[in-house]
Specification:
Blueprint: E1 5-6, E2 17-18, E3 21-29, E4 32-38, E5 45-48, H1 68-78, H2 81-88, H3 102-112, E6 136-142, E7 146-150, E8 159-162, E9 166-169, E10 172-177, H4 203-212, H5 224-237
Parallel strand pairs: 1-10
Antiparallel strand pairs: 2-3, 3-4, 4-10, 5-9, 6-7, 7-8
């Protein structure tokens, strides 16, 4: 499952063509950022998450909420027909397609649904619309024989259904986003460190301290506010 990569500077606007599909935004998993790509409405299909007879499976390796490619491979190895089909897909001359994880479906809903071509609320026949009546399967399994799915409307939340139910599968792919070199130090709430390296050679500072510190006893005498005022004067003269 070697993942291809792309520079952040090469990413297009949301909904614009990218690597055989349409750019759907950034997702974070496995410690790295990835570019998420939607295959589009033309290549979605209706299917069962699990269409084989017998005991309902518990595919432990397909329970990632983020990594859809890993989930889809685990589904295919267990015998899922739709997972095997999607992994074999060549879309617009490109491969590496998989069934989105539930988090990837949520990311697509958050980004693509803002565009008219994907918005199914009032334009069900829009070019890339998520229009459907039964939700979209994710590749994220949940317990024995069930998996997570999502209806692509702003007010909907993820839910689980038995894998034998028929729902829509929308192929996606991801590209690793190359890590850029830092041009500055990461931000920190800690106060900046003071550079006191030049104090030892400051004659003016030594003269001020002699007025307030007894060299024989090492004790401070005088008023603190007067010492601060004298130090402030030095700072304004620097």
């Amino acid at each position: 499952m070697k993942r291809r990569s792309i520079s952040a500077a090469a990413l297009p606007a949301i909904g614009h063509p990218l690597d055989g599909g349409f750019y759907a935004g950034r997702v974070f998993f496995d410690g790295r950022e990835h570019a998420l790509i939607d295959a589009g409405r033309e290549f979605q299909c209706d299917a069962q998450w699990w269409d084989r007879l017998g005991p309902r499976p518990s595919i432990k390796a397909a329970m990632s909420f983020e990594d859809g490619l890993m989930n889809t491979h685990a589904m295919a190895e267990a015998g899922s027909a739709i997972a095997q089909k999607v992994l074999r897909m060549v879309i617009r001359g490109t491969g590496c397609w998989h069934i989105p994880s539930i988090r990837q479906l949520e990311a697509m809903r958050s980004t693509l649904l803002q565009l008219d071509a994907w918005d199914s609320r009032h334009r069900s026949q829009a070019e890339q619309s998520f229009a459907d009546t039964h939700g979209f399967w994710s590749s994220t399994a949940n317990n024995c024989g069930s998996a997570w799915n999502l209806t692509m409307h702003p007010w909907c939340t993820p839910r689980t259904n038995w894998g034998k139910d028929i729902k829509t599968v929308r192929p996606v792919k991801t590209l690793l986003i190359k890590e850029a070199t830092f041009i500055h130090q990461p931000y920190s709430d800690a106060p900046p460190a003071l550079d006191l390296s030049g104090l030892a050679s400051s004659v003016a500072l030594a003269e001020v301290l002699e007025r307030f510190v007894n060299e024989d006893t090492g004790r401070f005498y005088g008023r603190t506010d007067e010492l601060i005022a004298a130090l402030a004067t030095l700072g304004s003269q620097a």
